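Input sequence (422 aa), recorded before submission:
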Amino acid sequence: MIKFKDVHKTYKNTGVNALKGVSFLIDDGEFVFIIGKSGSGKSTIMKCINCEEKPTEGAVYIDGFDISDMPRALVPTLRRQIGMIFQDFRLIESKTVYENIAFAGEIIGINKSELRQKVQVCLNIVGLKEKVDAYPQELSGGEQQRVAIARAMISNPKVIVADEPTGNLDPETSENIMGLLLDINRAGTTVIVCTHDANLVDRMKKRVIEIEGGLVIRDKEDAAYLEETADPYAEIPLGGIAFGDDADYRTDFDEDTYNVPNEQPDFYFGETPKNVQAAAPVIVPVAPTPAPAPIASAPEPSIAEIPVSELPVEAVAPAKTSIEEIPVEEAVVEETTVNPTSIEEIPVPSFSDALNEPRVEDFSREEKPIIEELPVENLLFADEAKVEKVPSATEDDDDEDDSWISKIRMDDIDLDIQEDDE
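Predicted structure, token format:
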């Protein structure tokens, strides 16, 4: 049993009040977490348990014995009943695993034959029997902490105090270390763990003592790292809430009609009282006006029932599917120019028609053969001949004499025509 009774601790060098009246009781065989922020006083509680520090005021009891004023000569005897596990392991680097564990047994006076058996048992418990001859620097962080646990178990203590035993370990190794401490606790040893690992505290659901500012602010069984805050309004009955004077409020309250007389009749469960029935106005239901029946539209006659004389042309004329079905008299002749396919089909205009037509800027090659067809011997140069008569375009082409073309002189021909011909 460990008991703190109004314990105060002030450090003389710094003047810091680490503890300001801490009181709690831990029974034998309990597993307790001591949590709190850094500087809250957790480590000071641990030091008071193993007599590393003495309280300034108050008392600390272990199994009913006040250790606050214990003589220094009895401190080793007390520490044989307390196993300490530290965050930084505190192993001797120059000694093997076996020597580190056996050294703690030698201090408390265990003989060598018994000590050898106890070391083997402790190594089997922590799972390091194959590392007996290894040095601390050859081990991982988790293995070094297991050696520290085996060293704390060598004296078969009643209490194991672990100050941040998983602070330097990964989550998986931390769970293994806490599982090992839990097995030791089930064997009957009291375990006190000072930690910041909220995940482990939440999963293990053990007793939690929370320290803040040198005071105990929470001491609860089966607790989590953070206290669950209850809803402050959950336990207040709805009928116990009153706003001002209840007489000023009405059941028919509405923001738009507040303090307005209620003109609606009251509602009653079951049958309405007779006096209310007499005063209630009689409401005569009004039959709704029937909607006019929809006008049925007459069915449209099929095209077979319509006389041919009344049908439009498009409906009477059958649809033509191919050009062979169209009669010749119904075919529409478009006024289009048919492209000639051979040179024989091209009409050759007369020379008189060419003179009367308007002049075109760009003569095509098809008009040039008109001049080229004239025989050379028929062409006259200088004043050899003069044109007696140039037939007009309006005269009849059938009565026209073609002999006149032999009398035309070269200088009588229009110069523009000569330039175009060239």
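Checked by second reader. Residues 171-186 form the longest helix (16 residues).
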